[in-house]
Amino acid sequence: MQEIINWSDEFLAGAMVIIQLFFVSLLMVIVWGLLGATAKLSNSRIARGIANGFTVLCRGIPEFLLLLIVYFGSAVTLTNIARSWDPEIRFMDIPPFWAGAFAISLVIGAYATETFRGAFLGIDKGLVEAAKALGLTRFQVFWRLRLPMMWRLALPGFGNHLLSLLKDTALVSVIGVQGILFTAQQATTVNHKPFTMYLTVAFIFLALSTVIVVTMKCIEKYAYRHLEAAR
Hints:
The protein is an all-alpha fold. The chain has ten helices and no strands. Helices cover 83% and strands 0% of the residues.
Protein backbone atom coordinates (compact mmCIF):
# COMPACT_ATOMS: atom_id res chain seq x y z
CA MET A 1 0.00 0.00 0.00
CA GLN A 2 2.83 2.39 0.80
CA GLU A 3 4.24 1.91 -2.70
CA ILE A 4 0.95 3.08 -4.19
CA ILE A 5 0.82 6.12 -1.90
CA ASN A 6 4.38 7.05 -2.84
CA TRP A 7 3.43 7.09 -6.52
CA SER A 8 -0.10 8.49 -6.12
CA ASP A 9 0.73 11.90 -7.61
CA GLU A 10 2.33 10.28 -10.66
CA PHE A 11 -0.61 7.94 -11.13
CA LEU A 12 -3.04 10.87 -10.87
CA ALA A 13 -1.06 12.80 -13.48
CA GLY A 14 -0.98 9.74 -15.70
CA ALA A 15 -4.74 9.28 -15.33
CA MET A 16 -5.30 12.89 -16.43
CA VAL A 17 -3.19 12.25 -19.53
CA ILE A 18 -5.27 9.17 -20.33
CA ILE A 19 -8.52 11.10 -19.89
CA GLN A 20 -7.29 13.88 -22.18
CA LEU A 21 -6.16 11.32 -24.74
CA PHE A 22 -9.54 9.61 -24.53
CA PHE A 23 -11.54 12.76 -25.27
CA VAL A 24 -9.24 13.93 -28.08
CA SER A 25 -9.43 10.49 -29.69
CA LEU A 26 -13.20 10.40 -29.17
CA LEU A 27 -13.68 13.53 -31.25
CA MET A 28 -11.62 11.97 -34.02
CA VAL A 29 -13.56 8.70 -33.77
CA ILE A 30 -16.86 10.52 -34.28
CA VAL A 31 -15.45 12.33 -37.32
CA TRP A 32 -14.04 9.14 -38.90
CA GLY A 33 -17.22 7.21 -38.12
CA LEU A 34 -19.57 9.78 -39.63
CA LEU A 35 -17.40 10.33 -42.69
CA GLY A 36 -16.93 6.61 -43.22
CA ALA A 37 -20.61 5.78 -42.80
CA THR A 38 -21.69 8.62 -45.08
CA ALA A 39 -19.18 7.53 -47.71
CA LYS A 40 -20.32 3.89 -47.56
CA LEU A 41 -23.93 4.92 -48.06
CA SER A 42 -23.18 7.39 -50.85
CA ASN A 43 -23.79 6.82 -54.54
CA SER A 44 -20.13 7.44 -55.35
CA ARG A 45 -18.08 4.34 -56.10
CA ILE A 46 -14.90 6.20 -55.26
CA ALA A 47 -16.22 7.25 -51.85
CA ARG A 48 -17.46 3.73 -51.11
CA GLY A 49 -14.13 2.27 -52.19
CA ILE A 50 -12.15 4.62 -49.95
CA ALA A 51 -14.45 3.91 -46.99
CA ASN A 52 -14.24 0.15 -47.53
CA GLY A 53 -10.46 0.35 -47.74
CA PHE A 54 -10.35 2.39 -44.55
CA THR A 55 -12.41 -0.10 -42.54
CA VAL A 56 -10.62 -3.16 -43.91
CA LEU A 57 -7.17 -1.69 -43.30
CA CYS A 58 -7.76 -0.25 -39.83
CA ARG A 59 -9.72 -3.24 -38.54
CA GLY A 60 -7.30 -5.74 -40.05
CA ILE A 61 -4.08 -4.35 -38.56
CA PRO A 62 -3.51 -4.83 -34.80
CA GLU A 63 -3.85 -1.61 -32.82
CA PHE A 64 -0.34 -1.88 -31.42
CA LEU A 65 1.17 -2.31 -34.88
CA LEU A 66 -0.86 0.52 -36.38
CA LEU A 67 0.27 2.78 -33.53
CA LEU A 68 3.92 2.09 -34.35
CA ILE A 69 3.36 2.55 -38.09
CA VAL A 70 1.63 5.91 -37.58
CA TYR A 71 4.21 7.21 -35.11
CA PHE A 72 7.37 6.16 -36.93
CA GLY A 73 5.85 6.60 -40.38
CA SER A 74 4.88 10.20 -39.63
CA ALA A 75 8.38 10.86 -38.31
CA VAL A 76 9.99 9.53 -41.49
CA THR A 77 7.57 11.49 -43.69
CA LEU A 78 8.02 14.77 -41.83
CA THR A 79 11.79 14.38 -41.74
CA ASN A 80 11.99 13.80 -45.49
CA ILE A 81 9.73 16.79 -46.20
CA ALA A 82 11.74 19.02 -43.87
CA ARG A 83 15.05 17.90 -45.40
CA SER A 84 13.80 18.84 -48.85
CA TRP A 85 13.63 22.42 -47.56
CA ASP A 86 16.59 22.36 -45.20
CA PRO A 87 19.18 19.54 -45.54
CA GLU A 88 20.56 20.42 -42.10
CA ILE A 89 17.44 19.09 -40.36
CA ARG A 90 18.10 15.66 -38.90
CA PHE A 91 14.79 14.58 -37.41
CA MET A 92 11.20 15.74 -37.02
CA ASP A 93 8.19 13.96 -35.60
CA ILE A 94 4.65 14.43 -34.34
CA PRO A 95 4.32 14.66 -30.54
CA PRO A 96 3.61 11.15 -29.19
CA PHE A 97 0.33 12.29 -27.63
CA TRP A 98 -1.13 13.38 -30.96
CA ALA A 99 0.31 10.44 -32.88
CA GLY A 100 -1.20 8.06 -30.33
CA ALA A 101 -4.59 9.79 -30.39
CA PHE A 102 -4.67 9.71 -34.18
CA ALA A 103 -3.66 6.04 -34.41
CA ILE A 104 -6.16 4.64 -31.93
CA SER A 105 -8.91 6.87 -33.32
CA LEU A 106 -8.40 5.28 -36.74
CA VAL A 107 -9.00 1.80 -35.33
CA ILE A 108 -12.07 2.66 -33.26
CA GLY A 109 -13.27 4.99 -36.02
CA ALA A 110 -13.29 2.06 -38.45
CA TYR A 111 -15.54 0.09 -36.09
CA ALA A 112 -17.71 3.15 -35.48
CA THR A 113 -18.14 3.49 -39.25
CA GLU A 114 -19.94 0.16 -39.40
CA THR A 115 -21.98 0.96 -36.29
CA PHE A 116 -23.11 4.30 -37.72
CA ARG A 117 -23.79 2.77 -41.12
CA GLY A 118 -26.05 0.14 -39.57
CA ALA A 119 -27.82 2.81 -37.53
CA PHE A 120 -28.44 4.94 -40.62
CA LEU A 121 -29.87 1.91 -42.41
CA GLY A 122 -32.15 1.29 -39.43
CA ILE A 123 -33.99 4.58 -39.91
CA ASP A 124 -37.47 4.17 -41.35
CA LYS A 125 -37.36 5.31 -44.98
CA GLY A 126 -40.93 6.51 -44.70
CA LEU A 127 -39.87 9.16 -42.20
CA VAL A 128 -37.18 10.44 -44.55
CA GLU A 129 -39.62 10.57 -47.47
CA ALA A 130 -42.17 12.39 -45.31
CA ALA A 131 -39.55 14.98 -44.32
CA LYS A 132 -38.67 15.54 -47.97
CA ALA A 133 -42.35 15.85 -48.84
CA LEU A 134 -42.64 18.64 -46.27
CA GLY A 135 -40.04 20.59 -48.22
CA LEU A 136 -36.97 20.02 -46.05
CA THR A 137 -33.65 20.19 -47.85
CA ARG A 138 -31.24 17.27 -47.87
CA PHE A 139 -29.10 18.97 -45.22
CA GLN A 140 -32.13 19.64 -43.02
CA VAL A 141 -33.26 16.04 -43.33
CA PHE A 142 -29.81 14.85 -42.30
CA TRP A 143 -29.35 17.31 -39.42
CA ARG A 144 -32.86 17.30 -37.97
CA LEU A 145 -33.97 13.74 -38.66
CA ARG A 146 -31.37 11.22 -39.76
CA LEU A 147 -28.52 12.25 -37.43
CA PRO A 148 -30.59 12.33 -34.18
CA MET A 149 -32.28 9.03 -35.00
CA MET A 150 -28.99 7.46 -36.00
CA TRP A 151 -27.42 8.38 -32.66
CA ARG A 152 -30.28 6.77 -30.79
CA LEU A 153 -29.87 3.52 -32.69
CA ALA A 154 -26.06 3.59 -32.47
CA LEU A 155 -25.78 4.22 -28.73
CA PRO A 156 -25.50 0.57 -27.53
CA GLY A 157 -22.74 -0.26 -29.99
CA PHE A 158 -21.03 3.08 -29.58
CA GLY A 159 -20.78 2.49 -25.83
CA ASN A 160 -18.70 -0.61 -26.54
CA HIS A 161 -16.46 1.45 -28.80
CA LEU A 162 -15.88 3.91 -25.97
CA LEU A 163 -14.70 1.10 -23.70
CA SER A 164 -12.37 -0.19 -26.41
CA LEU A 165 -11.05 3.32 -26.96
CA LEU A 166 -10.31 3.74 -23.26
CA LYS A 167 -8.42 0.44 -23.07
CA ASP A 168 -6.45 1.22 -26.22
CA THR A 169 -5.07 4.36 -24.58
CA ALA A 170 -2.83 2.03 -22.55
CA LEU A 171 -0.91 1.22 -25.74
CA VAL A 172 0.49 4.73 -26.16
CA SER A 173 2.98 4.19 -23.35
CA VAL A 174 5.14 2.35 -25.86
CA ILE A 175 5.80 5.61 -27.77
CA GLY A 176 6.51 7.61 -24.62
CA VAL A 177 3.15 9.07 -23.63
CA GLN A 178 3.26 9.34 -19.85
CA GLY A 179 -0.03 7.69 -18.99
CA ILE A 180 -0.73 5.40 -16.05
CA LEU A 181 0.85 2.36 -17.68
CA PHE A 182 4.01 4.37 -18.34
CA THR A 183 3.95 5.42 -14.66
CA ALA A 184 3.62 1.79 -13.56
CA GLN A 185 6.61 0.84 -15.70
CA GLN A 186 8.68 3.62 -14.18
CA ALA A 187 7.59 2.71 -10.64
CA THR A 188 8.43 -0.95 -11.18
CA THR A 189 12.03 -0.11 -12.04
CA VAL A 190 12.31 1.70 -8.70
CA ASN A 191 10.40 -0.40 -6.18
CA HIS A 192 10.44 -3.76 -8.00
CA LYS A 193 6.76 -4.30 -7.26
CA PRO A 194 5.33 -5.06 -10.70
CA PHE A 195 2.20 -6.86 -9.46
CA THR A 196 1.20 -4.00 -7.16
CA MET A 197 1.86 -1.32 -9.75
CA TYR A 198 0.08 -3.03 -12.63
CA LEU A 199 -2.83 -4.00 -10.38
CA THR A 200 -3.20 -0.31 -9.53
CA VAL A 201 -3.37 0.48 -13.23
CA ALA A 202 -6.05 -2.19 -13.66
CA PHE A 203 -8.19 -0.65 -10.91
CA ILE A 204 -7.83 2.83 -12.43
CA PHE A 205 -8.96 1.57 -15.84
CA LEU A 206 -11.80 -0.34 -14.20
CA ALA A 207 -12.96 2.82 -12.44
CA LEU A 208 -12.85 4.84 -15.65
CA SER A 209 -14.69 2.07 -17.52
CA THR A 210 -17.40 2.06 -14.85
CA VAL A 211 -17.89 5.79 -15.33
CA ILE A 212 -18.34 5.25 -19.07
CA VAL A 213 -20.82 2.40 -18.56
CA VAL A 214 -22.93 4.40 -16.10
CA THR A 215 -22.81 7.49 -18.33
CA MET A 216 -23.90 5.55 -21.41
CA LYS A 217 -26.79 3.98 -19.49
CA CYS A 218 -27.98 7.44 -18.47
CA ILE A 219 -27.68 8.70 -22.05
CA GLU A 220 -29.57 5.69 -23.41
CA LYS A 221 -32.30 6.15 -20.83
CA TYR A 222 -32.64 9.79 -21.86
CA ALA A 223 -32.61 8.93 -25.57
CA TYR A 224 -35.41 6.37 -25.15
CA ARG A 225 -37.44 8.37 -22.64
CA HIS A 226 -40.30 8.72 -25.14
CA LEU A 227 -40.69 4.95 -25.24
CA GLU A 228 -40.90 4.78 -21.45
CA ALA A 229 -43.53 7.51 -21.43
CA ALA A 230 -45.60 5.63 -24.02
CA ARG A 231 -45.92 2.53 -21.82
